[in-house]
Amino acid sequence: MVSVVEELKGKLAELAARLEEIKAEALVLEAQKAAFATVIKVFDPSAVSQPHAQRKTSTRSAPGRRVTDLLKGRDVRRGVLELLRDAEEPILAGDLSKQFATREGFEAEMDGISGNLAGRFSTLLERMQQDGLVRSSGAPDGRRRLWEIAR
Fold first, then answer.
1. 109-116 contact pairs (CB < 8 A, 24+)
2. May I ask the CATH architecture of the domain 65-149?
3. pLDDT tens digit string along 6-19?
4. 90 pLDDT band (50/70/90 cuts)?
């Protein structure tokens, strides 16, 4: 049984690495595409449409978009459960989000978005509470909640 789990973990790591490669390649291709569009526009301004001019603008704030981008492709739910399982005592959503950022390696990118990230974690924790995975209790300040794994 252990060997099957280890094989699955290895395959998951391979898939995650491949996905990162694909994302990096996509960024390179987007840059090349933009360069070609720029050159074509020099010779024939009517030949290339402006794709970003046609995009619908998002109503989400810049910090909200940054949080979404940072969490994209990450198994946040599983990460939250692992952090709660390892915690020695109940923890605030904000502290949990900081621990997650540290573990995932994007703590340096947290400037200006820590509140948004904590809010996103709070929402996730509330949904997980409805599913019976976690439970909360009031924090000493009376405004926030402490979270722990439902045992």
1. 109/66, 109/70, 112/63, 112/66, 113/63, 113/66, 113/67, 113/70, 115/63, 116/61, 116/63, 116/64, 116/66, 116/67
2. Orthogonal Bundle (1.10)
3. 888 888 888 888 88
4. very high
